[in-house]
């Protein structure tokens, strides 16, 4: 243990607050900065998309009582609403995945655990985005052989 000239124990050396931060590893670029900016921009856009979605689905017409197969089919007959819902799906999934990635990086201390969790996270995100996109683009509002009362008005019963 180090001592001062008077024999008192020496205090540990603390670097000045303005000293440059020493990184554990060097990074290749500004990925974390772009990730941070994306979270802010996507969060604002998601607020608009989600509240617009909730307003149209819950506040117009009969509210929650109007939501059935015909309502969704009528909405998704329009390219505008398909694009709206697709953008909401993609942004929400990427935004959430990026947030969980940050939590994993912060709390998973061992490299193997961190890599495993992030691989599982990315696989789940890709599968969810792919299935959601597939549902939006392959949705057929005019099903045949079903209850004609559930069909939207623009479908002709066959």
From TrEMBL:
Residues 1-23 are annotated as: Disordered. GO terms for molecular function: electron transfer activity; heme binding; metal ion binding. Membrane-anchoring subunit of succinate dehydrogenase (SDH). Keywords: Cell inner membrane, Cell membrane, Electron transport, Heme, Iron, Membrane, Metal-binding, Transmembrane, Transmembrane helix, Transport, Tricarboxylic acid cycle. It is found in: Cell inner membrane. This is Succinate dehydrogenase hydrophobic membrane anchor subunit. Gene3D superfamilies: Fumarate reductase/succinate dehydrogenase, transmembrane subunit. It is a multi-pass membrane protein. The chain crosses the membrane at residues 33-56, 87-107, 119-139. One of its GO terms (biological process) is tricarboxylic acid cycle. CDD domains: SQR_TypeA_SdhD_like. The keyword Calcium does not apply. It comes from the Bacteria. InterPro entries: SQR/QFR_C/D, Succ_DH_anchor, SuccDH_FuR_B_TM-su. PANTHER family: SUCCINATE DEHYDROGENASE HYDROPHOBIC MEMBRANE ANCHOR SUBUNIT.
């Amino acid at each position: 243990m180090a001592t001062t000239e008077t024999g008192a124990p020496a205090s540990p050396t603390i670097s000045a607050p303005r000293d440059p931060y020493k990184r554990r590893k060097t990074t290749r670029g500004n990925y974390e900065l772009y990730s941070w900016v994306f979270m802010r921009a996507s969060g604002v856009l998601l607020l608009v998309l989600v509240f617009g979605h909730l307003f149209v689905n819950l506040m117009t017409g009969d509210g929650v009582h109007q939501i059935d197969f015909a309502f969704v089919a009528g909405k998704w007959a329009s390219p505008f609403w398909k694009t709206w819902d697709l953008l909401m799906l993609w942004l929400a999934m990427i935004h959430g995945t990026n947030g969980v990635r940050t939590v994993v990086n912060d709390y998973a201390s061992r490299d193997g655990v961190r890599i495993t969790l992030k691989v599982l996270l990315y696989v789940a995100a890709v599968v969810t985005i792919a299935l959601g996109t597939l549902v939006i683009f392959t949705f057929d509002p005019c099903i045949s052989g079903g209850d004609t009362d559930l069909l939207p008005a623009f479908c002709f019963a066959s």
